[in-house]
What we know:
Elements: H1 10-31, H2 34-41, H3 45-51, H4 55-77, H5 85-99, H6 106-113, H7 119-139, H8 154-174, H9 180-198
Amino acid sequence: xxxxxxxxxxxxxxxxxxxxxxxxxxxxxxxxxxxxxxxxxxxxxxxxxxxxxxxxxxxxxxxxxxxxxxxxxxxxxxxxxxxxxxxxxxxxxxxxxxxxxxxxxxxxxxxxxxxxxxxxxxxxxxxxxxxxxxxxxxxxxxxxxxxxxxxxxxxxxxxxxxxxxxxxxxxxxxxxxxxxxxxxxxxxxxxxxxxxxxxxx
Length: 201
């Protein structure tokens, strides 16, 4: 990446970042088209390639940018003292929704990273993904799981929560426009039900 990218006006930087993030999030690395990114960003192809020489460099930059941004927001906005598992899940999603105000496709892009299977892409961004997972895991360190009933297999339970949340997120993004209130209400209802099913009281 050409470091002079950061000399551009912030509004143009964000349009290019958002254009790339949207196309990568919806298509994955291999099928992402720079032509679509240029169209989404509303800039010329010549300008685009002046700052980003190739797709792998762009993917690495966007991944690094998205993860640094979300981790910064988690550090600033999420309470590390939260001990309830469901409050933690909901709180992290609230932070992601706040990030959408500047970068609308960050939540879907972060989700897409865990589904990426292109070896070149994974080699380039694997370190960033691990860093993000470590930061999210740290948010769960204070969670008290003693409220879970004895029959609950925590690993399977947490996988179920992650997969269902992913499905809800993708369904909301598939709509003509993403409805944050709808997503958070659906998530709240799901977590409420999971709490009832997993706890003794």
